[in-house]
Amino acid sequence: MSDLLSAYEEYLKTEKKASENTVSSYMRDVRQFAHAMEEKGISLLEVVARDVNEYVHQLSRRGKSPATVTRSVASIKSFYNCLVVQGKADGNPARDVAPVKVERKLPQVLTGREVELFLEQPECTDLKGYRDRAMLELLYATGIRVSELIALDVDDLNLPGGVLKCMSKGKERIIPLYPAAIRALSEYVHNIRPQLVESLDETALFLNMSGERMSRQGFWKLIKHYQEKAGIQKDITPHTLRHSFAAHLLENGADLRSIQEMLGHADISSTQIYSRLMNQKIKDVYRKAHPRA
What we know:
Layout (H helix, E strand, L loop, with lengths): L1 H13 L5 H20 L9 H13 L4 H20 L26 H8 L7 H16 L3 H6 L5 E2 L4 E6 L2 E6 L2 H18 L19 H15 L7 H14 L4 H8 L4 H4 L1 H17 L4
Antiparallel strand pairs: 1-2, 2-3
Helix pairs in contact: 1-2, 2-4, 3-4, 6-8, 6-10, 10-13
């Protein structure tokens, strides 16, 4: 069993170019499934569709959310797809298992004023303040994921050209930067980062105060700190700025295809949720403003 799981983990990393978070989630799901099969005395290579269906129903009975159950189904399907591709299994027993229908929630976004307030919080009086301002400006300017943000290298930034190169899942996308972000990044790259870096071989764009690449956890703490400092009641996460970036572009006339390209969405359906968000906003305005609503 351990050999199959190890092979699958390597498949996710090298073949699928999955993010660290995706690998962690899928491996956790498959390990839980493997453990459940082991308790029933069933080898992973002996699993049939009935076993997968029973496991999925068991998850629901244990109170797991529809989103969690749906992800587990996707993980198990992906695991067996890997085994089929590698010639270790003849078929995928999870192929016809239907995922649980999940009502996708509309993302929470910040208003334009809330974004301004949030971006104003880092005080450019020390190294950390300049660095934090540059990070937050870049995140809102480009809508990139936090995993992409902390993975950036200095060479990914083209300040004279006013663009950022972002690599994700083996694909490259070029995203423009607005003037305020260019100014904050220029100050950081030329005057602040040289004071933080410990090794000349360090390629990371954003560094912690020890001179090493910024971690996901470190950036998360930074976000929560500035949310509290700004007194914004909404629960801000790194993804909130990504959602706000997309929603504000759409609100100001950008087309969905362009937003899809900048966000790095493989499927336009992932981007269309922002249209639903705008439609909901229009309905809310109508209900509040129309005299007969």
